[in-house]
Amino acid sequence: MNILLTGSNGFIGNHVAQYLKSKGHYIIGLGRQSQPYDQNTVDEYIQLDLGWGGYSPIDIPQRTSNNIDAVIHLAADMRKEPYCAEVVGANCVGTQRLLEMCDTHQIKIFLQLSSLPVIGHPEFHPITEEHPVHPYTVYHITKRTEELLANYAYEYHGIRTASFRISAPIGTRVNPKTIFPTFIRKAMNNETLTLLGKGTRCQNYVYVNDIARCLELSLHKEDVHGVYNLTSNLLISNIDLAKTIIKVLNSDSAIELHGEDPADEYVWDASLDRIFHDSGYNPDTKIEDVIL
């Protein structure tokens, strides 16, 4: 397939581009930078900021737009206050411009990433796609809006759209300030691993290559449309994550608990029944493999 991949320079986007190319797809990267992050992961590259251009149609070469089979939308503005209006513009208007481009050029597949925390916090377990939605940031409001825009395009414009709610992606180039790489970095230096509260909050990490694999599977499955949880089998509490990292790395780090964590009792045990049924996606990555 010829795939337009937005956000191809980002952490997830670069991994997805590399994976899709390995499967024989032709990748047209789209990003804000003047040059691709890695020329080897894209066949073509278009510089375009979805947050700019107002309401005008997306302007890409006609030769390219007429030969796109699918759009995978990974680009997102994740900033917080005081950039809320810009975040809404980039994410919501940018997504709608892409969907209108799909409609204009008869591109029939549109896949995008959403975020599991659009639900707010877990109210029942396991977390299914029917869980009540209570986004708690403007960014998460935009992700829920993107889901609705995609559903509308499916219902009324015949574009097969799917939105995948991911949780805590990990892999090379992940944000170094997040808990997973922070613990690894400190354990390698035998520094103390500090946790808030009891360390009992359970997160569901998803390896970035599993995200790429699920997206590739979904390109070929006509039954894939609507909203899906896209996580993995890497559900683990913060304190068990710290212990596992210390063990795997044979570290002398100590673990220290202090303060309170208001999310101590949260368990992000997202159900994968729907995505497995529709696409065949079944993650098998082990936490030890990701640490190493």
Protein model, in words:
The chain has 292 residues and is α/β, with parallel strands linked by helices. It has 9 helices and 12 strands. It has helices at residues 11-22, 62-65, 84-104, 138-157, 179-188, 208-219, 238-248, 273-279, 287-291; strands at residues 2-6, 26-31, 44-47, 70-73, 109-115, 160-166, 169-170, 193-196, 202-207, 226-230, 234-237, 255-258. The strands form 3 sheets. Strands 3-2-1-4-5-6-10 form a 7-stranded parallel beta sheet, sandwiched between helices. α4 (138-157) links the parallel β5 and β6. α3 runs parallel beside α4. The longest helix is centred in the first third of the chain and has 21 residues, at 84-104. The model has no long low-confidence stretch (mean pLDDT 95).
Percentage beta strand: 15-25%
SS class: alpha/beta
Helix content: 25-40%
**Secondary structure tally: strands:** 12
Radius of gyration, taken over Cα atoms and rounded to an integer in Å: 19 Å
Shape: globular
Oligomerization status of the protein chains:
single chain
List the secondary-structure elements in sequence, H or E: EHEEHEHEHEEHEEHEEHEHH
What is the strand arrangement across the widest sheet?
Answer: 3-2-1-4-5-6-10
